[in-house]
Design brief:
The protein has about 70 residues and is mostly helical. It has a domain at about 45-74. The protein has 1 helix and no strands.
């Protein structure tokens, strides 16, 4: 992978030693991908809720099963 920074000896506006004089804009790096700037697909936020809902359904089903078993003993 090549270095995305510009070559100092080929950049205009640089002082000897690589400094930038006052009022001069330093050279920008090349086309470097800054990374994701938008939110993801949302799957990470939906999956925990799906798991919580599934667990609640299972717990309620087991609870109703045992309540039904207790009713049959009366």
């Amino acid at each position: 992978m090549s270095n995305p920074d510009p070559e100092p000896d080929q950049s205009t506006g640089l002082e000897p030693g690589g400094g930038v004089p006052p009022g001069e804009t330093p050279p920008d790096s090349g086309s470097v991908n800054p990374g994701p700037t938008t939110a993801g697909s949302g799957r990470r936020t939906v999956l925990p809720w799906v798991i919580v809902v599934a667990l609640v359904v299972v717990v309620l089903s087991v609870l109703l099963f045992f309540v039904g078993r207790l009713e049959s003993f009366w």
